Amino acid sequence: MDPPQNFDQFSLKRILMNDTQRKMIAVEGNFNGHQEPAVVVIEKYAFDEASVLNVCNAQTKFKKNLENDVYKSFSCVPPYDENISSNKMDIIYPATDKHILKFSSQPLYFVQETEEMYQTITLPHILGSSLSLQWLYNCLEYKSEKERIKYDTASENQKDDEDNGFLLLPDLKWSGKLNELYLLAIIKKRNIKSLRDLTINHLPLLKNILNKGSAAIYKLYGVEQSQLRIYVHYQPSFYHFHVHFTYLMHTPPGINVGKAHLLTTIINNIEMQGNYYQKATLDYTIKESDPLFNRFEEKGILRKAKLIDESNNA
Amino acid sequence: MDPPQNFDQFSLKRILMNDTQRKMIAVEGNFNGHQEPAVVVIEKYAFDEASVLNVCNAQTKFKKNLENDVYKSFSCVPPYDENISSNKMDIIYPATDKHILKFSSQPLYFVQETEEMYQTITLPHILGSSLSLQWLYNCLEYKSEKERIKYDTASENQKDDEDNGFLLLPDLKWSGKLNELYLLAIIKKRNIKSLRDLTINHLPLLKNILNKGSAAIYKLYGVEQSQLRIYVHYQPSFYHFHVHFTYLMHTPPGINVGKAHLLTTIINNIEMQGNYYQKATLDYTIKESDPLFNRFEEKGILRKAKLIDESNNA
C-alpha cells in the first residue's frame, strides 16, 4: 500500500498538533479503512528565493486588512486554492533605511549593558535617532485605527487613567486566529521610553497592565492568564513603553531570553529593589547593522566577528 | 498608489532575509519605477485545521523522497503552483501510541513560583522524584563518555577545583555543525540542584564557568563570547547545576523567556542581592502532563484550561 495514492480515502481521526510558527501540522487517521492508525505530518516548505516573485501574479487576489501611515497589510490569495496556500503580505512604502535594516538578516552579538553604558551610549543614541511615534499618537488620540482598539482603560472611569491607563490593540503580526493571539498594551503616558525608565513609581501602571490586560483578554477571547505570555522587549522596536500579550502555545519572534522580559519578573524585580532597572546590567542581542552596534564598537565594547560558515563542521 | 494592484510591475532589488523556520521572506524593491524603496514581507499562513485535508486531493502530485521502515517522506505539490505552495509530508504507518504522543501538543501553563511555593511544593517534589544522576557522576569521574569531554578545569591546576571546577561536554542535541554549537558545562560540586540554590557564595563558580567556559570554546572552536548564548534552564531537565553554551544565531529549543536565564543576568542579580534566587518569584512554563503540574493543581495554584480551538476566529 502506498498511502498518498489513496489519500482521498484517508479518514481523519484528530489533529495531534498544529505548530503555527513552523507551519506544520500533525494528524492521526486511517487509510482506506485499514485499522492501524497512521500519523501524517505536513509542513510548508520555506520560500525559494529564486521564485519569490511568483507568490504574486496577475491572478492573485489581495484583501487589505489594514492601512496606517506607511504600513499596509494584505491577505494574498491565489484564486485556485484559498484555504491552503494563502500568504500574509505586509508592505512598507515608502520604506526608510531603518525599515530596510529592521528586516535584514545580520550577524548578532550579545552586549552586557551596564548602567553607565546606558547613560553614556544607549540613551544619547535613542534620543538622537528614534523613529517617529506619530502613528502611535494617532492611535492614542483615536485619530486612526480606532476600530482596532479592543480595550481602553478609560471605559472603566478610573481617576488615574492618564498615569496608569493603556489601550489594547492587535499586533500587526496577528493573523486573527485565536491560537496565535497577539495583542499590545500601549500606555497613555508619554515619558516612559523603555524598561530602563521603570521605577517603583510605575508599579501601579505595571500591575494595571498585568491585571486589566489579562482580564480584558479573558473577557474578549476566553484565554486565561496562565495561558498568556506577557512580556516586554529590550531593546524595543519603538521607544514608547508597551507590553506584548501572546498565547503561550504560539511562538512568535522575540520571545527569546536576551530580548523578552516577563512583566511578572519586571514587577518582582522592582518590588525587590526599586531602582533595579536603572542599576542592573541588561544583556541583549544586537545586530551588526544596528547603529547602536557602531556606538559600542567605537568604545571598544563590541568588535565585529566573522559569521560561521555553515559548511564547516566541528 | 495601491502597491499590490501593480505588483506585476514590482522590481526586486534584493532579498533582505529568508527565515526558513517561520517560512517568511523579506525583500526590498520598487513599484512601477517609483524611486522610493518598498519593503515587502511575505509569510505563509499556518495550516487551517478545518481544511487540512484539502492539502491533498486527486490533483496533488506526490514525490517520494525517503522510505525507511514505517517512515515515508514525500513532496506534495499542487499541479498549478509548484514553487510556491508545495508541502513536505511525512507518513508514519503503522503508527504506535508513542509515535502519536510524540506528535501531540500538550497544554502549557505559566506558573509564578514564589519562595514559599518552592519550599512547600517544588522542593519536596524534586527530592521525592528526581531521576538518578549516576550517568552524570560517571562522566565526572571519567568512568564514561571520557572521550566526549572537551575541557576540564582540572587541566589548569587551580586549587579550588572541587568548588569551582567544571567539565565541558557536547550536548546530545548538537549535530556537530559549528553554527549549531551546543555544549554543556557540568559543575563538579554535587549539592547545587538548580538556580534556586545559588547564593553569593557561588559567584566564583559562576564567573569561572562564564570566563573559562567561553575561553575554552574560543580556543576549541574560534567562537567569541559575544556570539554565544550562555544560559541556565529553570526548571532544568536534571537537578545537578549545569550551564548551556549555544551559538547565538542558532535557535535550539529552550531559549525562550520563562525557561532560559542568562548566566550574566544571574551573576548580576546575585551581585545586586545575595539571596536573589531564594527570594525571587520565578516564572516558568509547565506542561499539563508534568507531575509538578499535578502538585500545583492540588494546591489550587493552576487549573486545567481548554486548548484553543483554531476554528474560532477573533
Nutshell version of this structure?
The structure is a homodimer of 314-residue chains. Chain A is an alpha+beta fold and 314 residues long. Chain A is built from eight helices and 14 strands.
Radius of gyration of chain A: 23 Å
SS element count, helices of chain A: 8
Distance between the terminal alpha carbons of chain A, to the nearest Å?
42 Å
Q: Reading side by side through the largest sheet of chain A, how are the strands ordered?
A: 8-9-10-12-11-13
SSE run of chain A: EEEEEEHEHHEHEEHEEEHHEH
State the oligomer: homodimer
Number of DSSP-assigned strands of chain A = 14
* Shape by Cα distribution of chain A: globular
Class inferred from helices and paired strands of chain A: alpha+beta
Q: Largest chain interface and its two residue counts?
A: A-B, 129 and 126 residues
Structure notes:
2 copies of one chain form a homodimer. Chain A is globular and about 65 Å long. In chain A, strands 8-9-10-12-11-13 form a 6-stranded antiparallel sheet. In chain A, strands 1-2-3 form a 3-stranded antiparallel sheet, with no helix packed on it. In chain A, strands 4-5-6 form a 3-stranded antiparallel sheet, with no helix packed on it. In chain A, a hairpin with a 6-residue loop joins strand 2 and strand 3 (about 40-45). The first copy, chain A, has helices at about 95-100, 115-130, 135-140, 160-165, 205-220, 265-270, 275-280, 290-300; strands at about 10-20, 25-30, 40-45, 60-70, 70-75, 85-90, 110-115, 150, 165-170, 180-185, 230-235, 240-245, 260, 280-285. In chain A, helix 5 (about 205-220) packs antiparallel against helix 6 (about 265-270). Residues about 310-314 of chain A have low confidence and may be disordered. The first copy, chain A, is an alpha+beta fold. At the A-B interface, strand 1, strand 2, strand 3, strand 5 and strand 6 of A face strand 1, strand 2, strand 3, strand 5 and strand 6 of B. Strand 3 (about 40-45) of chain A pairs antiparallel with strand 6 of chain B.
